[in-house]
Amino acid sequence: MSSASQILDIAERRMRQVGYNAVSYRDIAAEMGIKSASLHYHFPKKEDMGVALVRRYAENFQAALAQNTAKQMTAEEDIFAFVDNFRTALKEQNLVCLCAVLGAEAAGIPTSVADEVKTFFVANIEWLSSRYAQLGASAPLRQAKMTLSLLEGAMITSQVNGDESIFDAAVEFIHSSVPKS
């Protein structure tokens, strides 16, 4: 029998490439070499899989941020490491943030999945805002929202255009706007 983790690995990669609505249990099962009924054992509905996938993605993302905190990095270094998480996904994996893809589809995906995406964005805005506040930014919440939005949009725009310089320009702008500690 397949494991829930294997299913989520394949679903994540596929959804980051083509979106929620373009991925089916049949596609995932075919890639795994199993019957699609086997997926229903772990995730009775696609919505269940979507919720589990976004939660896992958010937990992994937050764990990566926590590793930086454990290294006792400065707030400025934390922000740069946050940006690097996106850079790695785009440049090394050729993938867009899962929540950017699902966020773009929010009107057409189950509410429970969209709510998990919103939770991901809110948590990251709060995390960034606290770092900007530590650096004395005049409007830390606004700057956090701008940073996350710019990264998410730049990933999508770069991938659509096949031009990483778009993402690089966004990163350069973010780096130049971070208050120096």
TrEMBL record:
This is TetR/AcrR family transcriptional regulator. Residues 1-61 form the HTH tetR-type domain. PROSITE patterns: HTH_TETR_2. It comes from the Bacteria. InterPro entries: Homeodomain-like_sf, HTH_TetR, Tet_transcr_reg_TetR-rel_C_sf. Pfam families: TetR_N. Keywords: DNA-binding, Transcription, Transcription regulation. Residues 24-43 bind DNA.
